TrEMBL record, chains A, B:
<dbReference type="Pfam" id="PF02771">
    <property type="entry name" value="Acyl-CoA_dh_N"/>
</dbReference>
<dbReference type="InterPro" id="IPR006091">
    <property type="entry name" value="Acyl-CoA_Oxase/DH_mid-dom"/>
</dbReference>
<dbReference type="InterPro" id="IPR046373">
    <property type="entry name" value="Acyl-CoA_Oxase/DH_mid-dom_sf"/>
</dbReference>
<dbReference type="InterPro" id="IPR025878">
    <property type="entry name" value="Acyl-CoA_dh-like_C_dom"/>
</dbReference>
<feature type="domain" description="Acyl-CoA oxidase/dehydrogenase middle">
    <location>
        <begin position="163"/>
        <end position="272"/>
    </location>
</feature>
<feature type="domain" description="Acyl-CoA dehydrogenase/oxidase C-terminal">
    <location>
        <begin position="282"/>
        <end position="457"/>
    </location>
</feature>
<dbReference type="InterPro" id="IPR052166">
    <property type="entry name" value="Diverse_Acyl-CoA_DH"/>
</dbReference>
<dbReference type="InterPro" id="IPR036250">
    <property type="entry name" value="AcylCo_DH-like_C"/>
</dbReference>
<feature type="domain" description="Acyl-CoA dehydrogenase/oxidase N-terminal">
    <location>
        <begin position="39"/>
        <end position="157"/>
    </location>
</feature>
<feature type="domain" description="Acetyl-CoA dehydrogenase-like C-terminal">
    <location>
        <begin position="473"/>
        <end position="598"/>
    </location>
</feature>
<dbReference type="InterPro" id="IPR037069">
    <property type="entry name" value="AcylCoA_DH/ox_N_sf"/>
</dbReference>
<comment type="function">
    <text>Involved in the assimilation of dimethylsulphoniopropionate (DMSP), an important compound in the fixation of carbon in marine phytoplankton, by mediating the conversion of 3-(methylthio)propanoyl-CoA (MMPA-CoA) to 3-(methylthio)acryloyl-CoA (MTA-CoA).</text>
</comment>
<dbReference type="InterPro" id="IPR009075">
    <property type="entry name" value="AcylCo_DH/oxidase_C"/>
</dbReference>
<dbReference type="Pfam" id="PF12806">
    <property type="entry name" value="Acyl-CoA_dh_C"/>
</dbReference>
<dbReference type="Pfam" id="PF00441">
    <property type="entry name" value="Acyl-CoA_dh_1"/>
</dbReference>
<dbReference type="InterPro" id="IPR009100">
    <property type="entry name" value="AcylCoA_DH/oxidase_NM_dom_sf"/>
</dbReference>
<keyword id="KW-0285">Flavoprotein</keyword>
C-alpha cells in the first residue's frame, strides 16, 4: 500500500494561485481567522496526522476489517487510538461554531482536511465524516435544547453521528420509508423500524452515537410528504449531559463489503427507541435536501482521493520496474531493460490518474468556496443568499459526485494496471484502492441518480437549459481573455467548440423530450459525462492559464518545472481524455426507443 | 451470487444459424464425429455439470479461498469432488487425440465447454484450463516417450499441468528469465529458480502436477534466444508409469488476491528439481508462441464469461427491485413504485452487458473455428496451413483478449451498479464478479501488451496495414450483400464509414511512426479499442442479418421474439456503444510528445 504523502504543492497552487483563496476568505464573515499562518498550520498539521497516523492503518484496517459480536462493533487495531488523536487535535470542530466548541474556520478548510484524511484512509474518514451531516442537521433545525444537548460532544468528536435513511426496500426512493414514530406522553417518540447501510452506525470510537432518523408519524401522508426527522441517541442523555440509559436501537449485523472494510456499515433495529422530533413534522425530506449538496461534495472527494492514492502508488513502481525497451531507443542502457515509465502507454495510465486527481481537485476546491458562501449566508441569516449559493452549487453537485467518482474509479484501475499481475495481489495495496473506490459511484445517489438530477432537475426542469447557457458564457468569457496567450489558444479553441456543442445538445434533448419523455433518462449518463469532461477541461485550462502567466512573469511560489508540468498535463487532458466527449455526444441524441422498446420478458430467452 | 444458467438459445443460434458450425465441421478431418447428436449431448451435459456442480461452488469457493500449509494447498470445500466428477465425465479429453484417451472432438467444442465452466466458476475452470497449455506443448514438442509418460494421465485429468514462465523480476519481458537448468549425467537436468504467479501450481485435485518450465541452459545466449523448455513433474514418474519420488519443486506460498480466490496462485521454488528438456535447446520461447494465440483466446473467454454472469445476476434484480416511477408514466401502477428495469438508464446498463456478452461470444465462436482449423492442420501435418490459420487467428487474438476483457470488466461493473448499494455487499455475489474479472486485463499479457502486439507487430511490422485492408474488405463485402435489406441499411452504412476510418487511421499512424516511433505505443490502446468496437459491430451486424433473414422467411430454430430482440440489441450496440470509437479515433492520432515529453522527475513535486 502506498504511504500517503499530502500533495501540498498542488494544494497550495490551487488555493493560492488558481482559486485565490486569500481573497475569497476576505469576503467571508469568518474569513479573517483563516489567515495565511493558520492555513499553513492546518495544512501541515493535517498532512502530518494523515501521513503518520492514518496512512499506516489503511492496509491493516482493510485486512482486519470490523468485528461484530453481540450487537457491538470493534474497529480494527489502531483505529481507536487514531480517533482519540483526531479528537485531541480538535479536527472535528474545525469549521463548526465556536459557541459549540468549534474553531469556526471556513467549510473549505474542513473539506480539504477531509480530502487528505480520506486519501490516507477512506474507511477511517467515514466515521467523523458521517458526524458532519448529523451536526449540520442539528445546527440548522434543532431547538436550543437539542443543540446544547448534542452539539458540544459532537463537535468535540467524543460523540459521533449518523444519517439513517435507507431501509431494506428503499434507498433512492425514500418515499417508501416505513419506519414509524409513535408520540409518547412526554413529547418524545417511540421509533420502530429497520435501517440498513448505516455508515458508522455502530462502533467503539465514541461514547455515544447520535442517529438522525427518517420515520413516519401516525397518519402522515403517504410518500415523500410524510417523512419526519428524529434524533435517536444510542444512549439517552441525562439532564446534566451525562450518558444515560441504553436506547433500544441495536446493531443487528454489519455488512461484509467489497471494500472500505474498516468502515462499519450497520443494520440498525429501532425497537421503540426514544426519539426526538427535529424540524417540522412531515418536512424531514426537505430538511435532508438542505445539506445534500455538501454531503455529495464530500463523496465527490472520494473520486480525487482514490485517483491521488493510486497515482502515488503507481508512479514509483513505474520508475522502478524494468521491462522491455522503449520504442524510441534505450532509456536505461546500463540496465537489463527500461523502466516502464518510458513506455508511452504506461505514461498514458499515469497521466490519466494525475489529470483526474489534479483536475478533480480544482473542481472540488472551487465547489468548496461555494460551500463557504452558503455557510456564511447561513451564519448571517441571509436565506436568499444561502439559496442562491445552494442553487449554484446544485449545478456542480451531480457533476462532481457523478463524474468524479466514475473517473476516480477509472484512475484506481489504472493505478492497479500499471503493476501488471502484481496489481492483483493484496500485498501491494493497489487492488484495495480499486475496491475502496468502487462504493463511490453507488452511495449518496448512484451515478444514474446524479445524471437524472443534472439533466432532469437542474438543466431541464429548473432552468430550461439556462444553467448551461450561463455556465458556457462564463467559460467563453475566460476563453476570450486567453485568446492572446499562445499557450492557451488551443485550449480556448477546444473549449469554445465544446461550449457550442454543450448548448446544442441541451436544446436538442429538451426539444426531443417533448415527445420522448424517456430520452431524459436514456441520455442522462452520457450528458453527465459530457458535462463533466467539459467542466474538467475548463478547470485544467484555468490551471494552465495561471501556470503560463507565472512562467511569463517569472513569479509564483513554484518552480518553472512545476508550471511546465501543469501545462503538459493540461495538454494531455485535452488531447487524450477530452475526445471522449464525442462518443457521449453521438450516443445521447439517439431516441430512447432503442433502450425502451425491448419487452421486459425478451431480455433473455434462457432465464 | 446468480445461479448460472447456460445460455443455450444464444449458443445454438450462434453455432447453427450465424456461424454455420455444421458446415464448418464438415471441413475438418475429425468433423464427422461432431454430429448434431454429439454436440447436443455435449452442450447439455456441460450445461448440467456447470449449473448443478460448478455454479453452487462459485461463491463458497471465493469466501473460503485456498488454504496453504507446509507447502501444500487445499482447495475449497467441494472442489475435489467436483473435479473428480469432471474427470469421470471425460471432460478434460474432449478435444485431445484418441491415442491418449481423448475424444478427438474439434477444439471449438472444448472452448465452448470452457466458456460454460468459466462462467459458472472461473476459479475452478483455471485448474483444468492450465493443463491445456501443458498438454499442447507435450503433444507438439514431446518425444514419444514423453508423450506416453505424461499425456494419458493429463488427458484423463488425473494429473494436471502448469506453465511456469513468470519470475519475480519479469513477466512480459521473458528475456529476463534467470531460472537455470544444469545437465545431469543421465540426460536429464537439474532445474533451479523461483517462478511466481503459477496458476494451479499446487493443489489437492490431482495425483501429480506436470510443470512446463522456462529456464536457461549453461552458456545459453542472453535474452529471449537462450530460453529452453523443461518438463518438471511434481512427482517423478517410474518406468511403469506409477508415481515415484517427490521432485524438489515446492510451493513457497500462495498469493492473496483480489479475486479468483479459489484458484491457487503459487510461488514455486525449484531446487535442483529433475527436469526433462522438451523441444530444441534455446528455442523455448518460440515453442511457447505456438500456443499463445489459443491460450489468449482462452483468456478472452473470461470477458464474455463475466459479462454473461453479471447480466444473469442483474436482470432478475432489475425486474424485482421497485424504485421511483418511469419518466413516461407508471409501469407497475398497483405497486408502490416501478421495477427499475423500466428506467431507461438501468436498461442502458443491462443492454450494455448483453451486447458485450453476446457480441463477444460471436467473436470467440468465430475464433474457435480458426482454432479448429489450426488443430486440423496440425493433425494432418500441414505446417503451411497451420501457420496460415495461426496468422489469421493472430490478428484476432490481441483484439479478443485485450478488448473483450476490458469490456467484460465494464459489464461486471454494470451488473454490480444495477444493484445500487446492495451491489457492494458480498452476499449478492455481484462484487465477486467484478473482483474475479479484474485479473483478465492483467494476465496472459496486459491490455497494453495486447495493444502493442496488435498495432506494432500485427498491423505495422508484419503487414504494413494489409491486415486491416483485408479485414475491412471482408466487412465491406458483407455490407454490400446487405444493402437491400432495410433492417440492415443503417448497420451497413455505419460499418462502411468505420472501415474507411479504420484504414485512414492505420495509414496516418504508419506515416507518423516514421518520425515519431513512440506514437506506436501512445496510439496503441486507442487503436486496440477502436478495432475492437468495429469488429464487434461487424459481428453484431452478422447476427442482425441472420435474425432479419429468419424473420423475413419465417424459418429458423428460434421464436420471432428472439430474432427481434437480436435486432434491438444490435441497434443498441450501434447507437450507444459504437460511438465510443470517435473518442479513440480523435485521441490516437495526436503526436506522442504530450505523453513522452514530461521528464520522469516532474511527474510529481511532492513525492
Amino acid at each position: 500500500m502506498p504511504a500517503y504523502k499530502a500533495p501540498l504543492h498542488d494544494i497550495r497552487f490551487l488555493m493560492n494561485e488558481v482559486l485565490d483563496y486569500p481573497a475569497h476568505y476576505q469576503t467571508l464573515s469568518n474569513g479573517d481567522i483563516a489567515d495565511a499562518d493558520t492555513i499553513d498550520m492546518i495544512l501541515e498539521g493535517a498532512a502530518d496526522f494523515c501521513e503518520n497516523i492514518l496512512s499506516p492503518l489503511n492496509q491493516t484496517g482493510d485486512a482486519e476489517g470490523c468485528h461484530f459480536e453481540n450487537g457491538e462493533v470493534k474497529t480494527p487495531k489502531g483505529f481507536k487510538e487514531a480517533y482519540d488523536q483526531f479528537v485531541q487535535g480538535g479536527w472535528q470542530g474545525l469549521s463548526f461554531p465556536e459557541e459549540f466548541g468549534g474553531q469556526n474556520l471556513p467549510q473549505s478548510l474542513n473539506l480539504i482536511k477531509s480530502e487528505m484524511m480520506g486519501t490516507a484512509n477512506w474507511s477511517f474518514q467515514m466515521y467523523p465524516g458521517l458526524s458532519v451531516g448529523c451536526i449540520n442537521t442539528i445546527l440548522q433545525y434543532g431547538t436550543a435544547e437539542q443543540k446544547n444537548t448534542y452539539l458540544p460532544k459532537l463537535v468535540e468528536g467524543t460523540w459521533s453521528g449518523t444519517m439513517c435513511l435507507t431501509e431494506p426496500q428503499c434507498g433512492t426512493d425514500l418515499g417508501q420509508v416505513k419506519s414509524k414514530a409513535e408520540p409518547l406522553a412526554d413529547g418524545s417518540y417511540a421509533i420502530s423500524g429497520t435501517k440498513i447501510f448505516i455508515s458508522a452506525g455502530e462502533h467503539d470510537l465514541t461514547e455515544n452515537i447520535v442517529h438522525i432518523v427518517l420515520a413516519r408519524l401516525p397518519d402522515a401522508p403517504a410518500g415523500t410528504k410524510g417523512i419526519s426527522l428524529f434524533i435517536v441517541p444510542k444512549f439517552n442523555v441525562n439532564a446534566d449531559g451525562s450518558i444515560g440509559e441504553r436506547n433500544p436501537v441495536t446493531c443487528g449485523s454489519i455488512e461484509h463489503k467489497m471494500g472500505i472494510r474498516a468502515s462499519a456499515t450497520a443494520v440498525l433495529n429501532f425497537d421503540n427507541a426514544v426519539g426526538y422530533l427535529i424540524g417540522e413534522p412531515n418536512k424531514g425530506l426537505q430538511a435532508m435536501f438542505t445539506f445534500m449538496n455538501t454531503a455529495r461534495i464530500g463523496t465527490a472527494i472520494q473520486g480525487i482521493a482514490h485517483a491521488e492514492l493510486a497515482f502515488q502508488g503507481s508512479l514509483p513502481y513505474a520508475k522502478d520496474r524494468m521491462s522491455m525497451r522503449a520504442l524510441s531507443g534505450k532509456k536505461d542502457p546500463d540496465k537489463v531493460a527500461d523502466a516502464i515509465i518510458h513506455h508511452a502507454d504506461v505514461r498514458r495510465m499515469l497521466l490519466t490518474q494525475k489529470a483526474i486527481a489534479e483536475g478533480g481537485r480544482s473542481m472540488i476546491y472551487y465547489a468548496a468556496q461555494l460551500a463557504d458562501k452558503m455557510s456564511d449566508a447561513l451564519t448571517r441569516g441571509d436565506t436568499a443568499a444561502f439559496e442562491a449559493h445552494d442553487d449554484h452549487l446544485g449545478f456542480y453537485t451531480p457533476i462532481l459526485k457523478g463524474f468524479l467518482t466514475e473517473l476516480g474509479y477509472e484512475a484506481a484501475n489504472h493505478g492497479m494496471q500499471v503493476y501488471g499481475g502484481h496489481g492483483y495481489i493484496k500485498e501491494w495495496g493497489m487492488e484495495q484502492i480499486v475496491r475502496d473506490s468502487r462504493i463511490s459511484t453507488l452511495y449518496e445517489g448512484t451515478t444514474g441518480v446524479q445524471a437524472l438530477d443534472l439533466i432532469g432537475r437542474k438543466v431541464l426542469l429548473s432552468s430550461k437549459g439556462k444553467v448551461i447557457r450561463d455556465y458556457t458564457a462564463e467559460i467563453l468569457k475566460f476563453c476570450g481573455q486567453q485568446a492572446r496567450n499562445k499557450y492557451m489558444r488551443r485550449f480556448a479553441w477546444d473549449l469554445t467548440k465544446l461550449c457550442a456543442q454543450w448548448n446544442a445538445l441541451t436544446v436538442r434533448i429538451m426539444l426531443a423530450a417533448r415527445k420522448d419523455r424517456n430520452i431524459v433518462s436514456s441520455a442522462s449518463t452520457d450528458f453527465l459525462m459530457f458535462s463533466g469532461y467539459v467542466m474538467m477541461a475548463y478547470f485544467w485550462a484555468q490551471q494552465a492559464a495561471v501556470a503560463s502567466a507565472k512562467l511569463a512573469s517569472g513569479e509564483g511560489q513554484e518552480t518553472p518545472e512545476f508550471y511546465k508540468a501543469k501545462i503538459k498535463v493540461a495538454d494531455f487532458y485535452f488531447e487524450r481524455m477530452l475526445p471522449r466527449t464525442q462518443g457521449h455526444a453521438e450516443s445521447m441524441v439517439n431516441p430512447s426507443k432503442t433502450m425502451t422498446s425491448l419487452p421486459v420478458e425478451h431480455f433473455s430467452f434462457d432465464y
